[in-house]
Design a protein that fits this description.
171 residues, mainly beta, heat- and protease-stable fragment of the bacteriophage t4 short fibre, domain 3, three-stranded antiparallel beta sheet, two-stranded antiparallel ribbon, 2 helices, 9 strands, 6% helix, 15% strand, rod-shaped, Phage_tail_collar_dom, Phage_tail_collar_dom_sf, plasmid
C-alpha cells in the first residue's frame, strides 16, 4: 500500500484504526503532538486552536464535496425528521355522502347514511346528492407527530484519517 498523504481519509472494513491512522469520530488531538496535521486541518472540525483540534466526525454521516454553497467542515442533515404541515403539499381529504346524511357537528353515534341507502347510486339519487361534502368537523387531524427515519441505504465501514504520511503540497 502506498504511503498516504497526511490528513487523507480512507474506508476500512474492520472496526479499528490501523497504526498511523485514527478513526474519524470527532476526537480531540493535542496540537503539540500533531503540529503538521493541525497545520492542514486547523479548527475546521472543532477544538480550541490553542491546545487541541478535532478530527472530522463521520459517525452516522455521509461526506460530500465542498462547494455549491457547502463549506469545508460544515455538517447538516438529520437522521430522523418530523414533518410539519408547512412541508406538505397543499391538499384536501374529502369524503362525499348524500345531502343531509352526515351534516352534523359532532358525529358521535351518527352514520353516513341510513340502510339500505347507497350514497353513490340508486333510483332517485341525483348526482348533486352524491357529491355533497360532509360537515368539516367530521374529518379530524391524523398522525402522531413522530419522526421518521431519513437515511439513505447504507453500509457501515470504519473511516479513518492518516496521522502520518506525506505532507500534501497544493500543486
Amino acid at each position: 500500500m502506498a504511503e498516504p498523504f497526511l490528513g487523507e481519509t480512507r474506508c476500512f472494513s474492520f472496526a479499528f484504526a490501523p497504526r498511523g491512522w485514527a478513526l474519524c469520530n470527532g476526537q480531540l488531538l493535542p496540537i503539540n503532538q500533531n503540529q503538521a496535521l493541525f497545520s492542514l486541518l486547523g479548527t475546521t472540525f472543532g477544538g480550541d486552536g490553542r491546545v487541541n483540534f478535532a478530527l472530522p466526525n463521520l459517525q452516522g454521516r455521509v461526506p460530500i464535496h465542498m462547494g455549491q454553497g457547502f463549506t469545508l467542515g460544515q455538517s447538516g442533515g438529520a437522521q430522523a425528521h418530523t414533518l410539519t404541515a408547512s412541508e406538505l403539499a397543499p391538499h384536501t381529504h374529502l369524503l362525499r355522502v348524500a345531502e343531509g346524511a352526515a351534516r352534523v357537528a359532532a358525529p358521535t353515534n351518527a352514520t353516513l347514511a341510513a340502510a339500505p341507502f347507497n350514497a353513490y347510486s340508486g333510483p332517485g339519487v341525483s348526482s348533486a346528492e352524491r357529491l355533497a361534502p360532509m360537515h368539516p368537523a367530521t374529518l379530524a387531524t391524523a398522525g402522531g407527530a413522530q419522526a421518521h427515519t431519513n437515511m439513505q441505504p447504507f453500509l457501515t465501514l470504519s473511516i479513518c484519517i492518516a496521522l502520518q504520511g506525506i505532507f500534501p503540497s497544493p500543486n
